[in-house]
Amino acid sequence: MAARTVVLTGRVRDATGNTTVTATTVTVQDGSTLLGWCPPDSTVTDIQRMATRYPQPRLMRLYSAPGKGIAPWSSGMLAQVPVDTVLHYSFKDWSRTTSPALIRDWLSARPAARRGVVDLLTLDHEPEQQDSGDPTPAEYRQEWLELLEALADHPRRREVWLVPVFTEYAARRNNAWWQDFGQAAAFDGVDAVGFDIYDTGYERYRTPVERNDFALAQARRVGRPLVIPEWGIQRKPTLKSGAAYDPDGAICAQAMRDNMAYLRAQPDVPDVAWFYRGNCHLDATLTYPDGRTYVRDRERAAFVDLMR
C-alpha cells in the first residue's frame, strides 16, 4: 500500500459571478502492501547492482551509518532512487544544536519530482542494539521529540512519514522495551511504527501470525500503520538434532509467500523491504553447517513473484 500526495482543488462561483478557488493537500493510500528491497550496503555500487537485478522497485530502503550524517538528495545514494519509488531512509547522527535545521533543509531540498510518492524517514534505526553509535533510551526518546518538533510546521511535512523502527526479536524478549524505546511510537507526529523482523533464534520457520503478531500489536496499540524496513528468512537446512528440515529451500520459499499473503491481508501494513544481506542475500553462494555450498534459487523465485 503506497502513500501518495494528492492536491484537491475546488472552485465556487456565486450568483454575481465571483469565483473563489481553494486547494488542499491530502495523503492517500494506494493498493496493497508494497514489497521492495534493502541492498547489502547503502553504497552507490550496491544500489546499482540491486537495481540491475530488480529494476524499478516500488520501495527502496537505504541508510546512513553512524558518522555519515544526513545523505543529500542531489548525489550519492539518494540520487539512485527513481522518482516514483518510495524511499525509506534511515540515519543515525543527531545533534540538538545543528540537526533540526539540517533536517528541515533536507526536506526542503526534496526533489519536486518525488511529490507523487510519500517517503519514510527514520532516526536511530533499531536502538535496542546499543552499539554502533546507538543513543541511550533517554537520549533516543529526546532525539525523536526534537526531530518531530523540527518538522512539525514544515510546509512540506506531508511529503514524509516519520517512522521509529525497532527490532522485533529484541523488543519481544525485553520486558522494559516499551518503557525504554517503544513509547516513542506514541509520540504526537509519528506517522507509522516500524519493526525489523527475522526468524532469529527459532529452530523452525515461524508462521505468519507468530512472526508478525508482536509488531502488529505494538503498531495498533498506538493506532498507526506497521512498516517492515528489514525482513528476511535465513534458510534452515537442519534442526538442532541434525535431522533434515529444509535442505532445498522449498519450505522457506513457501514461508515467504505465506508471510506476504498474510501481511497483504492486513489493512494497515503499507511497506515491507527484504534485506538482501548475509544469509538473506538471495543471489549469493552460501555454506551449510557441514561445509556444502548452495544458492537460494527457490527463495529468489518466490521473491521475484512477490515483488510483482
Automatic annotation (TrEMBL):
- Supply the Pfam families for this chain: Glyco_hydro_cc
Q: Which UniProt keywords apply?
A: Hydrolase
> What name goes with this protein?
Glycosyl hydrolase catalytic core
Does Repeat count among this protein's keywords?
no
Methyltransferase is among the record's keywords: no
Name the species this protein comes from: Micromonospora carbonacea
GO MF annotation list: hydrolase activity
Q: Which residues form the Asl1-like glycosyl hydrolase catalytic domain?
A: 105-281
Instruction: Tell me where on the tree of life, at the top rank, the source sits.
Output: Bacteria
